[in-house]
TrEMBL record:
Record family assignment: Belongs to the esterase D family.
Protein name (Swiss-Prot/TrEMBL): S-formylglutathione hydrolase
Domain of life of the source: Bacteria
Record keywords, A-Z: Hydrolase, Serine esterase
Entry-linked Gene3D superfamilies: alpha/beta hydrolase
Catalytic reaction equation(s): S-formylglutathione + H2O = formate + glutathione + H(+)
Entry's Gene Ontology molecular function annotations: hydrolase activity
Function field: Serine hydrolase involved in the detoxification of formaldehyde.
Entry-linked InterPro entries: AB_hydrolase_fold, Esterase-like, S-formylglutathione_hydrol
EC number annotated for this UniProt entry: 3.1.2.12
Pfam (any one): Esterase
First-level EC class: hydrolase
PANTHER family (UniProt xref): S-FORMYLGLUTATHIONE HYDROLASE
Amino acid sequence: MTLETVSTSKAHGGTLEVYKHASAATGTEMTFSVFVPPQAQVGEGAKLPMLFYLSGLTCTHANVTDKGEYRRLCAELGLVFVAPDTSPRGEGVADDPAGAYDFGLGAGFYVNATQAPFAAHYRMWDYIAQELPALVAAHFPVDPARMGITGHSMGGHGALTLGLTFPETFKSLSAFAPIVAPGQVPWGHKALGGYLGEDKALWRAHDATALVEDGKRPAGAILIDQGEADSFLAEQLRPHLFAQACEKAGVDLTLRMQPGYDHSYNFISTFMDDHLRWHAERL
Ligand SMILES: N[C@@H](CCC(=O)N[C@@H](CS)C(=O)NCC(=O)O)C(=O)O
């Protein structure tokens, strides 16, 4: 698969690179950023651990790339960091009929849609679970046996559901302010209903709390940070639903409620170092 370079720029001794490529999963062009730390240059054939970061509603690869403040520590730890887009885009890609921010473009919810007109391109589950790991392993100095996943909000939902479903691919798992129970909150009802249809039994495969209840297990322990001043906490995020399911199932979850922090990248960048270390220690 061919990658087209959008940009490349030296940072912290490594390089921040942005690429476009034709995606077999979505049938569209997809864009992602990758930070390659300086350890990649130490000898030919370096194989480094890597972390996928899945973004939230309205985001592209650029939000965390610009505001996540991950490069300095990734350079120190020798961790490759990959940030994909949140939905397919381009001509012929359906959007929310009313142009709402929480469905359609920028809101793929990391599922394979089954409902028209979204089924044609909204296949972010396959893109993140299969296509992107293979593509990254083929083109960058990464060890495919040492990949982790994290994400924010809708991207935290993606990280948890993918990490629980594919523990052999995603060996370490964390999330920032994730949607943990889409089957029980308005964002999830709209997205899962719109992409997967109204049969709620089918939603359980894309609901982290239901996945744990149904017996799925991550590769190891899970870290979640959640701001207590997050305006989405009570209605959309509800992390205690996931904590209860994990406790009952014996899943090792560290849920840290962070006083005063909101839903923004000020919160994410504050705790980014902790998440990078969490993954580096496990990969
Ligand atoms: N009310 C917000 C909701 C979307 C939102 O808060 N998105 C979060 C993820 S759920 C985000 O990361 N936004 C982009 C940013 O802060 O850079 C909007 O319409 O933009």
